[in-house]
Amino acid sequence: MKKLRLIQQIQDAGVVAVLRGDSPEEVIRMAEKAIEGGIKVIEVTMTVPFANEAITALAKKYTSSDPEADNYAIIGAGTVLDSETARITILAGAEFVVSPGFDRDTIMLCNRYRVPVMPGAVTVHDIVASLELGVDVVKLFPGNLYSPSVIPSLKGPLPQANIMPTGGVNLDNLHEWIQAGAFAVGIGSDLTKDALKTGNYDLIADKADAYMKAFDKATAFKKAKARG
After folding, report:
1. Does this UniProt record's set of keywords contain Lyase (predicted)?
2. Most Cβ neighbours (<10 Å): which of 134, 200, 207, 227?
């Protein structure tokens, strides 16, 4: 089923680029450079003016159906606060929906259309409430409120929870988050700030490449450790 396939693909990809900007054109350019650098999961936030234009343009250019395709990428929507916005982004082409907090109606709508939804969670109550509504992945947000050790602490009583930290994840601590058991990680301003400061968008591709190399290294280390 497509929903389950997408969830597995997001986990395999490991890194989600969370993109904010001043226009659809700017975010499209950011996304193209992030994908060029190897990050294949793009989250266009709804704080971007006319964000749906960026989602539609990217959804038309890239496909999630074939990971081997040159134009492979998964395009989703972030900062979705309500079910009305969720439906609009799905119609625009978003293949997954991310929220900064827990909203029951948003989760139910995404479930209705079999679209992966990742609500934000700060407390155990948030995570349990999400699981009860059939959520497959919760977004630990803001991640910089915690250290990576929070994941095994949460997964002690909730081993079935898939947790994706977003906010505060960087090249220095990505390894720790993966070792701690993160389902995937979300990367925000650290990916784009240098490009926005200098106007050199190639820096996004360079930073994306660095993130993917760090993720691959962390994943390989974790597998080797598991094998003993």
Report:
1. yes
2. 207
